[in-house]
Specification:
The chain has 2 domains: 104 residues, Winged helix-like DNA-binding domain superfamily/Winged helix DNA-binding domain (Arc Repressor Mutant, subunit A, Orthogonal Bundle), CATH 1.10.10; 80 residues. The protein is built from 7 helices and 5 strands. The protein is elongated, with a radius of gyration of 22 Å. It is 61% helix and 11% strand. With 193 residues, it is mainly alpha-helical. Strand 4 and strand 5 form a beta hairpin. Helix 1 packs antiparallel against helix 2, helix 2 crosses helix 4 and helix 5 packs antiparallel against helix 6. The longest helix has 29 residues.
Length: 193
């Protein structure tokens, strides 16, 4: 783990904080989940620290200040802030301030179905939609009057890819549309859809 620099109200102390040792079975289980969530995130193309912050907020189920997140994960303030902003952009973490308090706190939706729906929608918006648009743009670069074997083959392959992306879009709109409820998602899973 990377050492962090402790910050207090007066500023930088310059001393690296000691690694946090889980004290209870609950904390050990949470730590194990956080580590696994972070490890698995690289398979999804997600930053490990971003995944670990999300995992911490998800398993704790309580609002945490940035200092608490930094302490628990042994990360720097800049790393925590950057990744919290990204999690907020994804819609899976919210920032708010308790009435009368000056510090922001962060919380994750603790419903795994809602979290799944948000992540899938966001990944489609960020990854699949731009890829489909890019393939369509490449298709427009091939003159329709060019019937050479190479162009015909490429056009055919790209059109097949566009069809696949359109099928994914139809399935997405049918099963994971914006107003899909958690109960509808659970029913789809039970039915094998």
């Amino acid at each position: 783990m990377e050492p962090t620099i402790d910050l207090d109200d007066d500023g930088l102390t310059g001393e690296p904080s000691a690694p946090r040792v889980p004290r209870t079975n609950l904390e050990r289980a949470q730590e194990q989940f956080i580590l696994e969530w972070g490890r698995m995130s690289s398979s999804w193309g997600i930053n490990r620290t971003m995944a670990q912050i999300h995992a911490l907020l998800f398993v704790s189920g309580v609002p945490l200040e940035v200092n608490e997140i930094m302490d628990r994960l042994q990360i720097s303030r800049g790393n925590a802030s950057m990744n919290l902003r990204e999690l907020i952009d994804w819609g899976i973490v919210r920032r708010f301030r308790q009435p009368g308090d000056r510090k922001d706190v962060y919380i994750s939706d603790t419903d795994p179905y809602q979290m799944f729906l948000r992540v899938v929608r966001e990944r489609k918006r960020r990854e699949l939609d731009p890829t489909a648009d890019a393939i369509k743009e490449v298709l427009t670069m091939l003159p329709s009057e060019d019937e050479s074997e190479e162009v015909v083959t490429l056009r055919s392959r790209l059109r097949a890819l566009v069809e696949i992306f359109e099928l994914i879009d139809v399935l997405f709109r049918q099963f994971l549309k914006t107003d899909t409820t958690v109960e509808e998602l659970k029913n789809m899973i039970r039915l094998g859809l």
